[in-house]
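FORM 12-B: Structure-to-Sequence Request
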């Protein structure tokens, strides 16, 4: 009973705090990192959170086949952490805190913030067009900002690098009725072997796949944008993206188990798994980075989270700019900034997040700004329940998150 009363008191305090700090819809989120300090939790508070999370974790993840790692933090302190299942099913190798997971599209947060850090250093302009870095690039008037915000209108390499043509034929069914049949055949432009970011660029220069929209006309989530941003970082720094991220980001933040997967790592590839535990084999698009391919642990991701709160990687004004909604064509509480998804519902303040999905990896990185609380879930066996498990954040906000999932 004492723990329930304590938890109720915590929720009441947070709800009152959120109501007084609500952000207007579609407004940037301001974090004053220079004066930011985490308020330490008492042992009783941490235990109350753990007691509240445990049954929700069991119901929403463990009972639904979860295989992976979870960490929940409040004020920079871990209040719940667990590692369940196997890192490698073939060897019956159980998960540990040091086993890195493919973050999938959460990788975009690192690419975006690294790019913005280069902007802080005066090494690029966000209004630079792509021809500054790729003179032969055939698509005009696309800026770095439009890549960051998914407003470039470019097509997705995930589809055009494996392009096939639809061929329509007609036949008769058993009843003699005419039936349309669609066959997909190779277009002649499909690629073979492991592809790199340079291969994506060269393919676009050579074949000029059709755009989806003119620049800055509409939001269209597209992996091509971030594959190109990784190339821009390489052009500016003159260092391969995996090495630059290791030296200038991960090592700086003491993220010891975090790296960018590339062709050099293929011999040590540990697969993710389908729901039936069948492994995903390496495919030709698995070595393209920037949009994906950062591997990390939940503890390293908490270091990333803390660096963002404390302003030790980019300035608070830069982070506020990254959290400013960029797309307003559709009226919605969901939006996208510069490398971040956001839910601006005005109830519990802004939720800044990014999810990921690549092969068997489902990942969640959710930050409740007003509550200085964080949820990190990394799974390596395909399980869509990982996304809906964002409702676990109700232990921090006091209200259940029922919003739709944006992967």
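FORM 12-B RESPONSE
SEQUENCE OUT:
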């Amino acid at each position: 009973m004492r723990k329930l009363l304590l938890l109720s008191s915590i929720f009441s305090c947070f709800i009152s705090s959120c109501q007084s700090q609500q952000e207007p819809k579609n407004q940037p989120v301001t974090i004053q990192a220079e004066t930011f300090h985490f308020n330490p939790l008492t042992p009783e508070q941490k235990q109350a959170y753990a007691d509240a999370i445990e049954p929700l974790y069991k119901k929403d993840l463990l009972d639904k086949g979860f295989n992976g790692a979870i960490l929940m933090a409040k004020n920079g302190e871990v209040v719940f952490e667990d590692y369940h299942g196997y890192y490698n099913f073939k060897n019956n190798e159980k998960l540990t805190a040091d086993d890195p997971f493919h973050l999938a599209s959460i990788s975009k947060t690192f690419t975006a913030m690294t790019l913005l850090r280069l902007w802080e250093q005066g090494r690029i302009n966000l209004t630079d067009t792509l021809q500054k870095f790729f003179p032969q690039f055939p698509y005009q008037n696309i800026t770095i900002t439009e890549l960051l915000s998914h407003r470039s209108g470019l097509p997705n390499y995930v589809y055009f690098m494996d392009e096939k043509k639809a061929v329509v034929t007609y036949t008769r069914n058993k009843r003699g009725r005419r039936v349309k049949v669609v066959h997909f055949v190779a277009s002649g432009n499909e690629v073979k072997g492991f592809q790199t970011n340079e291969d994506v660029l060269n393919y676009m220069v050579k074949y000029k796949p059709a755009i989806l929209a003119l620049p800055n006309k509409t939001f269209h989530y597209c992996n091509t944008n971030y594959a190109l941003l990784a190339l821009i970082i390489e052009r500016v720094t003159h260092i391969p993206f995996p090495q630059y991220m290791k030296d200038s980001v991960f090592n700086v933040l003491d993220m010891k188990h975090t790296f960018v997967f590339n062709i050099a790592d293929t011999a040590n590839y540990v697969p993710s798994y389908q729901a039936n535990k069948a492994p995903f084999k390496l495919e030709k698009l698995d070595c393209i980075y920037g949009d994906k391919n950062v591997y990390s642990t939940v503890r390293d991701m908490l270091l990333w989270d803390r660096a963002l709160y404390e302003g030790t990687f980019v300035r608070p004004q830069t982070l506020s700019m990254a959290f400013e909604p960029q797309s307003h064509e559709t009226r919605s509480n969901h939006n996208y900034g510069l490398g971040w998804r956001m839910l601006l519902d005005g109830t519990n303040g802004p939720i800044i997040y990014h999810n990921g999905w690549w092969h068997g990896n489902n990942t969640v990185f959710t930050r409740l700004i007003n509550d200085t609380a964080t949820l990190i879930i990394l799974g390596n066996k395909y399980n869509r329940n990982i996304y809906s498990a964002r409702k676990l954040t109700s232990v921090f906000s006091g209200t259940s998150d029922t919003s739709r999932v944006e992967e």
